[in-house]
Design a protein that fits this description.
globular, alpha/beta
Length: about 280
């Protein structure tokens, strides 16, 4: 058996963002958020992951997975393999924007439902924290009471997860082991050989993918390792020199190259920070 890397966005969405594997998503969310009994998620509905700004549409973003549960709580699930600057700000932006977009014109605030953002990271975001999982809520700084329940953030830092196959006890253990290690296995590990875990393993098995899906997967790897890495370094160099104009020119240069390589406009916008309209003009 040959397994693909489930943390590559194309694969991640196939496993955790499809109707076909809905029970996988439910199990993953309940495990990571430690939801049991009456609080457990029993069903999810997948939503359109394309979001637009409320007014001027200057900032558009495309989420990896967006879904709601049986009581209309909203869940964002993002996977990020390579380290990027200000990821914490990006996920905060995604969550608050998703929260605001729940209301249409003239709707009452009571219709707003909590938004829970989960980030699966292939890098260390919080170097001072020893734990591989951290859940962040809005708390009273003196009493630590959780009065504002509208926003929750859960971060999984996979480099910190070091449990072996023989140490897997909880469902959370199994999901994190799957995410970090399954692509290095040549068989389904015993702890994952049943239920939704076995389903996820078979969904990531290379031989079950079509040629088009494999091509998309390979392209996603190239995009992640080359384009994103090069862009972050270019932006970092520009910031050190204080050359705002230089950074923008570099972004336009990279966007032009990405267009020439056939990369879609949405990906280019998310990678470079340019707007959709700016990129469309470049394309013309």
């Amino acid at each position: 058996m040959q397994f693909l890397n489930p943390c590559i966005d194309v694969a991640f969405k196939k496993i955790f963002g499809s109707e076909e594997h809905k029970r996988v998503t439910i199990s993953f969310l309940n495990s990571i958020l430690e939801l049991t009994g009456q609080r457990a998620i029993k069903n999810v509905q997948f939503l359109n992951t394309e979001q637009h700004e409320l007014r001027d549409k200057k900032k558009e973003n495309y989420l990896d997975i967006l879904c709601t549960d049986q009581v209309d709580n909203t869940y964002i699930i993002e996977v990020q393999v390579e380290r990027v600057k200000t990821f914490d700000k990006r996920i905060t932006y995604y969550a608050t924007k998703t929260y605001a977009l729940q209301l249409g014109a003239a709707q009452s605030y009571y219709k707003l439902k909590p938004v829970i953002a989960i980030a699966v990271l292939g890098f260390t975001l919080f170097p001072k924290k020893k734990a591989y999982k951290s859940i962040h809520n809005l708390l009273d700084i003196k009493t630590h009471e959780h009065d504002l329940e509208e926003l929750t953030f859960a971060f999984i830092e996979l480099p910190k997860f070091e449990k072996t196959e023989n140490e897997l006890v909880t469902n959370e253990d199994k999901w994190l082991y799957f995410l970090k290690n399954i692509d290095e296995q040549n068989h389904v590990p015993a702890p994952l050989n049943k239920g939704e875990f076995e389903e996820a393993c078979h969904a990531i098995e290379r031989m079950t993918w079509t040629e088009a899906e494999i091509n998309a997967y390979d392209y996603s790897i190239i995009k992640t390792t080359d384009v994103q890495g090069g862009l972050e370094l270019a932006f970092e160099d520009g910031e050190k020199k204080g050359e705002t104009k230089g950074k923008r020119e570099k972004a336009i240069e990279i966007a032009t190259k990405m267009l020439g390589a056939g990369i879609d406009i949405a990906t280019i916008a998310q990678t470079t920070g340019l707007t959709i309209e700016e990129i469309k003009k470049l394309k013309k």
